[in-house]
């Protein structure tokens, strides 16, 4: 019996010696800790990389904004657009604005009583010889044209029984317009004004027919301005 117990103890000691002779393995907990540490290091590296990427993106965005602002400033301050894409539309002035001034100013020569046509003479003008001609009470339009007509008649003050129409403007046998009110009065003299625009054929005759009280005084004016031909 003692021999068996001794043999068992010897076998146990031999097992312990054999086990103690094997190389020691690293504890698994330590391996997990190292992996966790490695993961933590990778996370820190990733976070650092993300921060750098974010900073670079912000710098690029700021650079792009600065570039856009610089381009806009250059477009505003430059003498002309860099290309046809930025060319602003150009509006041309109307033809009447760029045409050289062409007009005839005629002056009434003597008093005219109602009902009668006012007689004229050339007072002043510019470049009007080939477009307008004065012939006593008629102004002749020599070529088809668009014109502006201004009539300024100085005449006797209206009375209660006088015609409501002060004067009429005729183109041949067609009445272009009529004046029924005055703009200024000084004593027994009144100023009546009418302005109109029209397009007339060549050889049209313009006349002013007085219908008011008393007379039209000399010095009244009829102005024809050429707008277009």
TrEMBL record:
Region Disordered: start-end pairs: 1-53
Bias (Low complexity) ranges: 1-13, 36-48
Biased segments, Basic residues type: 23-35
Full protein name: Unnamed protein product
Lineage, top ranks: Eukaryota, Sar, Stramenopiles, Oomycota, Peronosporomycetes
């Amino acid at each position: 019996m003692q021999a068996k117990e001794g043999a068992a103890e010897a076998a146990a000691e031999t097992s312990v010696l054999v086990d103690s002779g094997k190389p020691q393995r690293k504890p698994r907990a330590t391996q997990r800790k190292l992996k966790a540490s490695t993961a933590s290091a990778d996370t820190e590296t990733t976070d650092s990389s993300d921060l750098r990427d974010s900073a670079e993106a912000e710098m690029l965005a700021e650079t792009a904004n600065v570039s856009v602002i610089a381009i806009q400033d250059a477009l505003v301050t430059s003498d002309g657009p860099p290309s046809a894409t930025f060319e602003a539309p150009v509006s041309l002035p109307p033809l009447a604005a760029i045409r050289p001034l062409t007009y005839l100013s005629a002056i009434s020569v003597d008093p005219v009583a109602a009902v009668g046509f006012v007689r004229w003479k050339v007072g002043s003008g510019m470049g009007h010889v080939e477009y307008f001609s004065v012939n006593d009470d008629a102004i002749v339009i020599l070529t088809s044209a668009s014109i502006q007509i201004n009539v300024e008649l100085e005449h006797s003050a209206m009375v209660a029984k006088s015609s409501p129409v002060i004067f009429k403007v005729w183109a041949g046998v067609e009445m272009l317009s009529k004046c029924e009110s005055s703009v200024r009065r000084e004593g027994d003299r009144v100023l009546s004004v009418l302005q109109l625009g029209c397009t007339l054929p060549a050889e049209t005759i313009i006349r002013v027919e007085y219908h008011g009280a008393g007379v039209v005084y000399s010095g009244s004016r009829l102005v024809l301005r050429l707008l277009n031909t």
